[in-house]
Sequence to fold (456 residues):
Amino acid sequence: MSKPIIKVENLSKRYRIGAKQEGYKTFREAIMDGFKVPIRNFRRLRKLTRFDEEFAKHKEHSARPTALPHAVAAMASSQSDDAIWALKDVSFEVQPGEALGIIGHNGAGKTTLLKILSRITEPTTGEAKIYGRVSSLLEVGTGFHPELTGRENIYLNGTILGMRKAEIDRKFDEIVGFAEIEKFIDTPVKRYSSGMYVRLAFAVAAHLEPEILLVDEVLAVGDVAFQKRCLGKMSDVAKEGRTVLFVSHNMAAVGGLCPGCIYLKEGCIKDFGPANSVILQYIGDFKSTKQISLAERTDRRGDGRVRVTGLRFLDTITHRPIESIISGQDVYIEVTYESYDSSPAPLNRVNIGLGFFTTLGQFVMVLNSEMASRAFGSLPREGRMYCRIPRFPLMPGVFHIKLTLVVRGAIADQLENVSVVNVDAGDFFGTGIPNDYRRQGVYVPHSWSAETPSVY
Ligand SMILES: Nc1ncnc2c1ncn2[C@@H]1O[C@H](COP(=O)(O)OP(=O)(O)OP(=O)(O)O)[C@@H](O)[C@H]1O
Ligand SMILES: [Mg+2]
Fold:
């Protein structure tokens, strides 16, 4: 076997809960913050990065542990209230040219792992050795300096990757073309829409010939056509013999791109091997996961002004909770919420959206209060919202639901996998003919006839 390009040894990362979030600051931004004058000479900047110094010295760079070496042994007993181990004793190797998927439930440590590999954050203990130039695309917001234009950011990123101006010049048009931002190339990226931003960020990360490409969840943003192009580009990068690490909740995308896969669970490697078997293990766990109560979940986004504390499916006649929905059955979804806003005013302009996803992470259906019935005008500060769905249209299978609650235009609460729902075969069309397609799709009401439709 050849020499690995990434070697991760006993990596652990502890975060303090309540400590200031590290946010989106990248090592590039940290460097940029040190300069108050416009930077013309990016070479000067390069010299100042620890990344490059180490890279030049060793052709490898390794993050040094900052805490006591005994921390791993201690952590089993020291899971104190104010600290959380996002990664626990993770070790693996990646060979050059490998495309490796990283999957796991929310909060499993996937982003933390990529942040350590791209030197945005340091491990608490352990080491990540990297024998190549890394380009990463983590959550939207990383990698670019907001004050600089698209053009300047492309050159900055290329320079950090050790490329010469002439090399970046050659790639420039391809990057701008892929990102479809020709018109805005000389606009500061802080003025970009999130779609433009992520398109440019992906184009830069994938085209600037990194030896290792790290991509986190980029497919969640952007339209379907762009998602396809990203997958195509990542597959090209892998075929060119470069190494790709791809974090995603979309199992179909991971399975299609990556022959191998790591499944992280609560900071540990639960499974590592051929993607197909690792994905099956993940899906199996997913179905059996006992959901902790919504009110206690901390893996949520949003400003927290209003929080969803419960979600149930109810029968429309008995109003009893339903364990499994039958295709074609009339159901209510009951959402319980509480407000944490200090103002005593009723809640207004509330919109709730529920997205249904297959176990492979493919989106199939949305329920949205504003689209269907207009946003709620005025709601009590605590209460329940009900959505009525006549003839539940999903085919038999297991689906998970993502919830987004928007109050006055800003996301107040957002939870992935807010609930997992099982749908059993039923008579959606009311014809008495059984439908048992386990295809994780939707039924639509329709009818057939051999008669020419009459014109009114
Ligand atoms: N800067 C931070 N400060 C404190 N805790 C953090 C920080 N970043 C992550 N965590 C915590 O570390 C754990 C792992 O988070 P991480 O973002 O790596 O998970 P993930 O697998 O990427 O999840 P997701 O699928 O939701 O993106 C979580 O419990 C998270 O709340
Ligand atoms: Mg993440």
In short: The chain is about 25% helix and 30% strand. The longest helix spans residues 224-239. The domain at 6-288 is CATH 3.40.50.300 (Rossmann fold).
